[in-house]
Amino acid sequence: MLSKRIISCLDVREGKLAKSIKFLETRDIGDPVVQAHKYYLQGLDELVFYDITASSDNRSIMLNVVSRVAEQVFIPFSVGGGLRTVDDCSRVLLAGAEKVNINSAAVKNPSLITEVSQAFGSQAVVLSMDVRRVPPTLEIPSGYEIVINGGRTPMELDAIAWATRGEELGAGELVVNSIDADGTKAGYEIRLTRMIAEAVHIPVIASGGGGKPEHLYEVLTEGRADAVLVASMLHYGEYTVGAIKKYLAGKGIKVRMTIGEDLRNSVE
Question: Active site residue: 45, 51, 130, 262, which one?
């Protein structure tokens, strides 16, 4: 059995770490590079950075932040936001990222997934999906709709259908971000995550709603997620990576117990 991954999501706006609730009420809460290094020392498995206004502002990605992270953090990390072409993705990977997250641009131009996968390998391509609950319709039978441009533009595209198509086009992983649960700390969207995990054969990363370790356990078991994104739990100092992993291990979840600074202190 593969270990379940704990991944921290760091939203970046104008070079600063930001946090929102349901993609609204966004506020700056620190330096993303400082936080990334802190979580690395705690034993985090991976990081993902989202430039949350690059797509809506129609500008390029934050390469300065990417290169700074690559100098200080020695675990895999991916970057998303404002990636529209293979060249955009190439610049991010050359700056030090291991993977790229493509979202809005892939919905507008699905062939981008294939182009990036052929250029760099499917293992480097993460399809990130922002999803909102809606009344089921013929176009959206699952009741979950894809929304792009930072939650601003609904696409009348069924999330399950988009997930399976993304896999067919060459995505190596999926991030399933529930807009309804985002920042609420009330728990992940279990039903949505499970529906997508059962529809595809690539890793599914649950995102949006984590508030306590029990929520991670639920989405990793009931939701069948392969990995989970956490943000508020770490950003506000409510939990450490070590504490989360110790809880999950105690519940029988296989996790990588890397001895980082926080874990070393906790076992001495």
Answer: 130
